[in-house]
């Protein structure tokens, strides 16, 4: 017996003959000439090492071995059909799953519109989002949990051999303060003018904090609070506890009564926004489509 020679084509021919019980009709149903069809059945019998059909001038009937093999053959063909259908569904994006990791400013600003556009085109694909600090986003990609990440920090040298990055643009920042704060009327903003005022800092592991610390060095901000989320920082600003710096991408989250934002046109203050994915291996068809859509839609000014 040589099972490696078995093919779905041969198994389908066997099952058609089982169902029709006639070589001529089975050959026609298989779109083959009768000699070619007969040769296919003979090759199957040679491969399994047993006669599967009793042939006579009037009928074709399964042998005991043929009846034994029929259920297994039908199961194999059904499994193959399901596998091929499932694969086609994934290739055509009728089903699948895509997991994106993104820093909160991008997850809240650009991604909702991109996800909505993608969902409208391919509603059968499940979308997942992890909105985390940049380093955690990158580690999800490195560990294979996320298909790609939208990050705001470079890849560590130790990860450079495993991960590759695509530059999306430079993320800018705005000052957030109360509308009655003296800086709200400042026409030419500088970091030095901001430095004396009570400041609400983001946590040290955030890309916002990293960018601001790098731009301020060696100056120090007059830090009065350190918080984890932008919503908390803006709430503290509204309560007149200090000022803060927010990503331009997050300005829609700063719409709190009494709080205003002013652009910080400072060349030394910015974040490199990156798309990060693994170097080795292809993305799934569904993930590649979202990856390409992100590159088409995200623009920084």
The strand line-up of the biggest sheet is: 4-3-5-12-6
Low-confidence stretches: none
Helical/strand content category? alpha/beta
**What does the largest sheet look like?**
5 strands, mixed
Helix content: 40-55%
CATH class membership of the largest domain: Alpha Beta
Query: What is the strand tally?
Result: 12
- In CATH, the homologous superfamily of the largest domain goes by the name Periplasmic binding protein-like II
What's the CATH architecture name of the largest domain?
A: 3-Layer(aba) Sandwich
Rg is 32 Å
Number of helices: 11
The rounded distance between the terminal residues' Cα atoms is 68 Å
Overall form: rod-shaped
Integer count of domains? 3
Give, in order, the helices and strands: HHHEEHEHHEHEEEHEHEHEEEH
**Average of per-residue pLDDT values:** 87
Any idea of the CATH topology of the largest domain? D-Maltodextrin-Binding Protein, domain 2
Proportion of beta-strand residues: 15-25%
């Amino acid at each position: 017996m040589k099972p490696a020679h078995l093919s779905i084509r041969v198994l389908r021919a066997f099952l058609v003959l089982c169902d029709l019980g006639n070589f001529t009709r089975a050959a026609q149903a298989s779109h083959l000439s009768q000699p070619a069809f007969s040769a296919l059945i003979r090759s199957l019998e040679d491969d399994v090492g047993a006669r599967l059909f009793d042939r006579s001038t009037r009928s074709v009937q399964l042998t005991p071995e043929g009846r034994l093999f029929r259920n297994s053959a039908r199961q194999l063909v059904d499994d193959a059909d399901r596998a091929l259908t499932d694969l086609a569904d994934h290739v055509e994006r009728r089903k699948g799953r895509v997991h994106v990791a993104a820093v909160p400013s991008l997850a809240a600003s650009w991604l909702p519109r991109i996800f909505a556009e993608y969902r409208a085109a391919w509603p059968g694909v499940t979308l997942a989002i992890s909105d985390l600090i940049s380093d955690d986003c990158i580690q999800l990609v490195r560990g294979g949990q996320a298909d790609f990440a939208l990050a705001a920090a470079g890849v560590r040298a130790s990860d450079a051999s495993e991960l590759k990055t695509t530059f999306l643009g430079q993320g800018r920042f705005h000052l957030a303060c109360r509308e009655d704060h003296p800086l709200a009327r400042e026409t030419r903003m500088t970091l030095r003018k901001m430095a004396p005022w009570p400041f609400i800092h983001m946590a040290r592991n955030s890309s916002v904090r990293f960018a601001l610390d790098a731009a301020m060095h060696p100056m120090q901000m007059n830090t009065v609070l350190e918080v984890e989320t932008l919503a908390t920082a803006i709430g503290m600003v509204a309560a007149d506890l200090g000022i803060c710096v927010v990503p331009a991408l997050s300005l829609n989250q700063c719409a709190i009564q009494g709080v205003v934002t002013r652009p910080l046109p400072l060349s030394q203050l910015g974040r490199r926004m990156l798309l990060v994915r693994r170097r080795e291996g292809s993305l799934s068809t569904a993930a590649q489509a979202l990856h390409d859509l992100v590159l088409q839609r995200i623009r920084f000014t």
